[in-house]
Fold this protein.
Amino acid sequence: MLDKNCVFCRIVRGELPSGKVYEDDKMVVFKDLEPKAKVHLLAVPKDHFKLLEEADSERAQTLAHMLLKIPEIAKSNGCKNGYRLIVNQGDDANQTVHHLHIHILGGEKLPE
Ligand code: 5GP
Ligand code: ZN
C-alpha cells in the first residue's frame, strides 16, 4: 500500500525527484537529500510501512531481498571498503520519515 502523504511513497511513484540509483519490483534506492557521509543512500521498500514489527511474511521477504541486493548497490555507488547500515525505528531513534528505510553510509572512513 502507498500513503499519499508520505514523501518516500511519492519518490517510489516518481512524483518527486530523488537521485535514484537503483529500482526493481520490490525496492528503490536513492541519494539522501542531506548526506551524512560521502556516500549516503536510502533503500526503501515500495510497500509503505514504518516499523520492522509491521512486517508479515511477504514484507520479510522484501526485507531479505533488500539486504541481499545492498552489497552490490553499495559497491557500485562508491562504497569500496565497507559501509554502515542504519534503520531508525520510532521516536527515540528520531525516525523522521515513517516509511521504513535503510541508510547506507560509506565512501570514506566513518566515525567509530
Ligand atoms: P530518518 O531520520 O527518518 O531515519 O531519516 C530520514 C532521511 O530521509 C534523512 O536522512 C533525510 O535527509 C532524508 N530525506 C527526507 N526527505 C527526503 C526527500 O524528500 N528526498 C530524499 N532524497 N531524502 C529525504
Ligand atoms: Zn510511504
Strands lie at 20-23, 27-31, 39-45, 83-86, 102-106. DSSP finds two helices and five strands in the chain. The pocket of zinc ion (ligand 2) is lined by residues 3, 6, 8-9, 48, 99 (CB under 6 Å). Helices lie at 7-12, 57-76.
